Amino acid sequence: SRKDYETLFSWATANGATLHGILSKDDNYGGVCLAATTPFAEGDIVAVLPRSFRIGQHVACKRLGLPAGTPDLSALSLYLIDLMASNDDDDDDDSFGRYATCLPRRGSNALFMSQDVIHYYGTLGKDYEKALEAVRNQALSCISYIQDVLSLNGCQHDLSRLEWAISMVQSRTHGFGTKRSRWLTPIFDFANHSETPNCKIQGDAEGRLLLRAIKTIFVGEEVTIDYQVSDDAKLVATYGFSLKHTLTVGSDRT
Fold it and tell me: Which of 202, 232, 230, 227 is nearest to 214 (CA)?
Protein backbone atom coordinates (compact mmCIF):
# COMPACT_ATOMS: atom_id res chain seq x y z
CA SER A 1 0.00 0.00 0.00
CA ARG A 2 0.99 3.64 -0.32
CA LYS A 3 1.44 3.78 3.45
CA ASP A 4 4.10 1.04 3.23
CA TYR A 5 6.21 3.23 0.93
CA GLU A 6 5.78 6.27 3.15
CA THR A 7 6.82 4.21 6.16
CA LEU A 8 9.86 2.88 4.28
CA PHE A 9 10.99 6.37 3.24
CA SER A 10 10.50 7.71 6.77
CA TRP A 11 12.43 4.83 8.31
CA ALA A 12 15.24 5.14 5.73
CA THR A 13 15.55 8.89 6.37
CA ALA A 14 15.73 8.30 10.11
CA ASN A 15 18.56 5.84 9.47
CA GLY A 16 20.82 8.10 7.42
CA ALA A 17 19.29 8.25 3.94
CA THR A 18 18.77 11.58 2.16
CA LEU A 19 15.48 11.29 0.27
CA HIS A 20 13.74 14.66 0.57
CA GLY A 21 14.18 15.27 -3.18
CA ILE A 22 12.29 12.16 -4.30
CA LEU A 23 9.14 10.20 -3.59
CA SER A 24 7.58 6.97 -4.81
CA LYS A 25 4.53 6.97 -7.04
CA ASP A 26 2.61 4.60 -9.28
CA ASP A 27 4.12 4.25 -12.74
CA ASN A 28 2.43 3.46 -16.06
CA TYR A 29 3.20 -0.26 -15.90
CA GLY A 30 1.33 -1.31 -12.78
CA GLY A 31 4.33 -0.82 -10.52
CA VAL A 32 6.10 1.92 -8.61
CA CYS A 33 8.72 4.44 -9.70
CA LEU A 34 10.62 7.41 -8.25
CA ALA A 35 9.79 11.04 -9.02
CA ALA A 36 11.47 14.34 -8.18
CA THR A 37 9.91 16.61 -5.56
CA THR A 38 12.34 19.44 -6.30
CA PRO A 39 14.19 20.53 -9.45
CA PHE A 40 17.73 19.28 -10.03
CA ALA A 41 20.47 20.52 -12.32
CA GLU A 42 22.99 18.28 -14.04
CA GLY A 43 25.49 17.05 -11.47
CA ASP A 44 23.23 17.54 -8.44
CA ILE A 45 22.88 14.73 -5.91
CA VAL A 46 19.25 13.64 -6.00
CA ALA A 47 19.33 11.13 -3.12
CA VAL A 48 21.81 9.33 -0.89
CA LEU A 49 21.75 5.90 0.75
CA PRO A 50 24.20 5.10 3.58
CA ARG A 51 26.58 2.14 3.29
CA SER A 52 24.27 -0.01 5.40
CA PHE A 53 21.64 0.13 2.61
CA ARG A 54 23.95 -1.63 0.17
CA ILE A 55 23.10 -5.27 0.82
CA GLY A 56 25.43 -7.85 -0.66
CA GLN A 57 26.25 -11.52 -0.32
CA HIS A 58 28.36 -11.01 2.81
CA VAL A 59 25.52 -9.25 4.64
CA ALA A 60 23.06 -12.00 3.71
CA CYS A 61 25.43 -14.80 4.75
CA LYS A 62 26.17 -13.12 8.07
CA ARG A 63 22.49 -12.55 8.87
CA LEU A 64 21.44 -16.08 7.96
CA GLY A 65 24.54 -18.01 9.05
CA LEU A 66 25.15 -19.29 5.51
CA PRO A 67 28.50 -20.65 4.32
CA ALA A 68 30.84 -17.86 3.16
CA GLY A 69 30.96 -19.30 -0.35
CA THR A 70 27.20 -19.23 -0.93
CA PRO A 71 26.54 -17.70 -4.39
CA ASP A 72 25.14 -14.18 -4.24
CA LEU A 73 21.89 -15.06 -6.00
CA SER A 74 21.17 -17.82 -3.49
CA ALA A 75 22.25 -15.78 -0.46
CA LEU A 76 20.24 -12.68 -1.38
CA SER A 77 17.17 -14.69 -2.33
CA LEU A 78 17.18 -16.35 1.08
CA TYR A 79 17.76 -12.94 2.66
CA LEU A 80 14.57 -11.61 1.05
CA ILE A 81 12.61 -14.63 2.21
CA ASP A 82 13.88 -14.07 5.72
CA LEU A 83 12.84 -10.41 5.58
CA MET A 84 9.36 -11.35 4.44
CA ALA A 85 9.09 -13.90 7.23
CA SER A 86 10.34 -11.65 9.99
CA ASN A 87 9.29 -8.13 8.88
CA ASP A 88 11.41 -6.51 11.59
CA ASP A 89 8.96 -3.67 12.15
CA ASP A 90 9.78 -3.30 15.81
CA ASP A 91 13.58 -3.26 15.43
CA ASP A 92 14.84 0.23 14.69
CA ASP A 93 18.32 -1.03 13.84
CA ASP A 94 17.29 -3.67 11.31
CA SER A 95 14.00 -2.85 9.65
CA PHE A 96 14.58 -3.83 6.05
CA GLY A 97 11.41 -5.85 6.39
CA ARG A 98 9.72 -2.57 5.45
CA TYR A 99 11.52 -2.76 2.11
CA ALA A 100 10.43 -6.35 1.52
CA THR A 101 6.76 -5.44 2.03
CA CYS A 102 7.06 -2.89 -0.80
CA LEU A 103 8.29 -5.41 -3.36
CA PRO A 104 5.87 -6.81 -5.98
CA ARG A 105 4.16 -9.98 -4.88
CA ARG A 106 4.84 -11.55 -8.27
CA GLY A 107 7.88 -11.49 -10.51
CA SER A 108 7.74 -10.33 -14.12
CA ASN A 109 10.90 -11.79 -15.63
CA ALA A 110 11.38 -15.08 -17.51
CA LEU A 111 10.80 -17.16 -14.38
CA PHE A 112 7.19 -15.95 -14.11
CA MET A 113 6.22 -15.63 -17.78
CA SER A 114 3.37 -17.73 -19.06
CA GLN A 115 3.99 -20.15 -21.90
CA ASP A 116 2.09 -17.82 -24.23
CA VAL A 117 4.45 -14.94 -23.41
CA ILE A 118 7.53 -17.15 -23.74
CA HIS A 119 6.27 -18.40 -27.10
CA TYR A 120 5.61 -14.84 -28.29
CA TYR A 121 9.13 -13.69 -27.51
CA GLY A 122 10.55 -16.91 -28.92
CA THR A 123 9.04 -16.08 -32.29
CA LEU A 124 11.09 -12.87 -32.35
CA GLY A 125 14.37 -14.70 -32.73
CA LYS A 126 16.88 -17.11 -31.24
CA ASP A 127 18.45 -14.35 -29.11
CA TYR A 128 15.18 -13.94 -27.16
CA GLU A 129 14.75 -17.68 -26.83
CA LYS A 130 18.31 -18.11 -25.49
CA ALA A 131 18.03 -15.14 -23.09
CA LEU A 132 14.79 -16.46 -21.61
CA GLU A 133 16.28 -19.94 -21.24
CA ALA A 134 19.41 -18.54 -19.58
CA VAL A 135 17.48 -16.65 -16.89
CA ARG A 136 15.20 -19.60 -16.20
CA ASN A 137 18.15 -22.01 -16.02
CA GLN A 138 19.98 -19.65 -13.66
CA ALA A 139 16.94 -19.65 -11.38
CA LEU A 140 16.60 -23.44 -11.53
CA SER A 141 20.30 -23.83 -10.67
CA CYS A 142 19.81 -21.51 -7.70
CA ILE A 143 16.82 -23.54 -6.49
CA SER A 144 18.81 -26.77 -6.83
CA TYR A 145 21.73 -25.29 -4.89
CA ILE A 146 19.48 -24.18 -2.06
CA GLN A 147 17.58 -27.47 -1.93
CA ASP A 148 20.55 -29.81 -2.41
CA VAL A 149 23.39 -27.99 -0.69
CA LEU A 150 21.97 -25.58 1.85
CA SER A 151 19.34 -28.09 2.96
CA LEU A 152 22.21 -29.84 4.72
CA ASN A 153 22.25 -26.81 7.05
CA GLY A 154 18.52 -27.08 7.69
CA CYS A 155 17.52 -24.61 4.94
CA GLN A 156 14.05 -25.58 3.71
CA HIS A 157 11.75 -23.23 1.80
CA ASP A 158 8.50 -23.30 -0.14
CA LEU A 159 9.18 -23.48 -3.90
CA SER A 160 6.82 -20.63 -4.82
CA ARG A 161 8.47 -18.31 -2.30
CA LEU A 162 11.90 -19.31 -3.56
CA GLU A 163 10.89 -18.51 -7.14
CA TRP A 164 9.55 -15.12 -6.06
CA ALA A 165 12.73 -14.21 -4.18
CA ILE A 166 15.03 -15.35 -7.00
CA SER A 167 13.04 -13.31 -9.52
CA MET A 168 13.30 -10.24 -7.28
CA VAL A 169 17.07 -10.60 -6.95
CA GLN A 170 17.55 -11.25 -10.66
CA SER A 171 15.59 -8.16 -11.63
CA ARG A 172 16.28 -5.68 -8.82
CA THR A 173 19.97 -5.96 -7.95
CA HIS A 174 22.74 -3.68 -9.18
CA GLY A 175 26.31 -4.69 -9.94
CA PHE A 176 29.20 -3.04 -8.10
CA GLY A 177 32.89 -3.77 -7.71
CA THR A 178 35.41 -5.40 -10.00
CA LYS A 179 33.56 -8.73 -9.88
CA ARG A 180 30.19 -7.05 -10.56
CA SER A 181 28.63 -8.80 -7.58
CA ARG A 182 24.89 -8.47 -6.96
CA TRP A 183 23.74 -5.86 -4.44
CA LEU A 184 20.24 -5.04 -3.28
CA THR A 185 19.81 -1.26 -3.09
CA PRO A 186 16.48 -0.60 -1.35
CA ILE A 187 14.54 2.42 -2.72
CA PHE A 188 17.00 3.08 -5.56
CA ASP A 189 15.74 -0.13 -7.16
CA PHE A 190 12.34 1.54 -7.61
CA ALA A 191 13.86 3.66 -10.40
CA ASN A 192 12.74 2.51 -13.85
CA HIS A 193 15.02 1.99 -16.83
CA SER A 194 15.34 4.51 -19.64
CA GLU A 195 17.46 4.65 -22.78
CA THR A 196 17.83 8.36 -22.01
CA PRO A 197 18.03 8.37 -18.20
CA ASN A 198 18.21 11.52 -16.10
CA CYS A 199 20.18 9.91 -13.23
CA LYS A 200 22.91 7.42 -12.49
CA ILE A 201 23.93 5.52 -9.35
CA GLN A 202 27.43 6.10 -8.02
CA GLY A 203 29.40 5.03 -4.97
CA ASP A 204 31.55 7.40 -2.93
CA ALA A 205 34.64 7.01 -0.74
CA GLU A 206 32.46 6.39 2.32
CA GLY A 207 30.65 3.49 0.68
CA ARG A 208 27.43 5.46 0.28
CA LEU A 209 25.27 5.22 -2.84
CA LEU A 210 24.49 8.47 -4.63
CA LEU A 211 21.69 9.02 -7.11
CA ARG A 212 23.14 11.82 -9.26
CA ALA A 213 21.37 13.87 -11.93
CA ILE A 214 22.98 13.68 -15.37
CA LYS A 215 20.58 16.21 -16.89
CA THR A 216 18.02 18.74 -15.71
CA ILE A 217 15.13 17.18 -13.79
CA PHE A 218 11.88 19.06 -13.20
CA VAL A 219 9.50 18.74 -10.26
CA GLY A 220 7.21 15.76 -10.76
CA GLU A 221 9.42 14.23 -13.45
CA GLU A 222 10.14 10.52 -13.16
CA VAL A 223 13.65 9.69 -11.98
CA THR A 224 15.17 7.07 -14.30
CA ILE A 225 18.45 5.19 -14.63
CA ASP A 226 20.14 2.99 -17.22
CA TYR A 227 20.03 -0.69 -16.26
CA GLN A 228 23.23 -1.18 -18.29
CA VAL A 229 21.63 -3.81 -20.51
CA SER A 230 21.89 -2.91 -24.19
CA ASP A 231 20.43 -6.17 -25.53
CA ASP A 232 16.62 -6.11 -25.73
CA ALA A 233 16.40 -9.89 -25.35
CA LYS A 234 18.20 -9.68 -21.99
CA LEU A 235 15.91 -6.84 -20.90
CA VAL A 236 12.92 -9.07 -21.63
CA ALA A 237 14.36 -12.10 -19.87
CA THR A 238 15.71 -10.30 -16.80
CA TYR A 239 13.18 -7.50 -16.28
CA GLY A 240 10.12 -8.59 -18.23
CA PHE A 241 9.81 -5.71 -20.69
CA SER A 242 10.92 -4.87 -24.20
CA LEU A 243 11.87 -1.52 -25.70
CA LYS A 244 11.46 -2.81 -29.25
CA HIS A 245 8.32 -4.92 -29.24
CA THR A 246 4.80 -4.47 -27.91
CA LEU A 247 3.60 -7.55 -26.12
CA THR A 248 0.14 -8.48 -27.38
CA VAL A 249 -0.64 -11.34 -25.01
CA GLY A 250 -0.44 -9.52 -21.68
CA SER A 251 2.41 -8.07 -19.64
CA ASP A 252 3.17 -7.63 -15.93
CA ARG A 253 5.98 -5.09 -16.08
CA THR A 254 6.75 -3.86 -12.56
Answer: 202
Cα-atom radius of gyration of the chain, to the nearest Å?
18
The residues facing 18 across adjacent strands are 48
16-to-49, 51, 249 alpha-carbon distances in Å: 7, 9, 43
Q: To the nearest whole number, what is the mean pLDDT of the chain?
A: 88
Residue 169 sits at φ, ψ, to 5 deg, of: -70, -40
Size of the chain, expressed as the number of residues it contains: 254
CA-wise closest residue to 163 among 92, 241, 80, 96: 80
CB-CB contact of 46 with 213 (8 Å): yes
pLDDT at 157 over 50: yes
Instruction: Assess contact for 252 and 112: CB atoms under 8 A.
Output: yes
- Please, which residues have CB within 8 angstroms of residue 223's CB and are 6 or more apart in sequence? 22, 33, 34, 35, 36, 46, 191, 198, 199, 211, 217
Q: How far apart are CA 248 and CA 40, in angstroms?
A: 37
Burial of 168 by CB count in 10 Å (0-12 exposed, 13-18 middle, 19+ buried)? buried
Rounded CA separation 242/29 (Å)? 12
Separation between Cα atoms, residue 26 and residue 47, nearest integer Å? 19
Q: Is the pLDDT of residue 44 over 60?
A: yes
User: Which is higher by pLDDT, 54 or 247?
Assistant: 54
DSSP code per residue over 75-86: HHHHHHHHHHHH
pLDDT digits (tens, 9 = 90+) for 116-126: 999 999 899 99
Q: Pairing mode, if any, of strands 32-36 and 222-225? A: antiparallel
Phi first, then psi, for residue 221 (nearest 5°) are: -75, 140
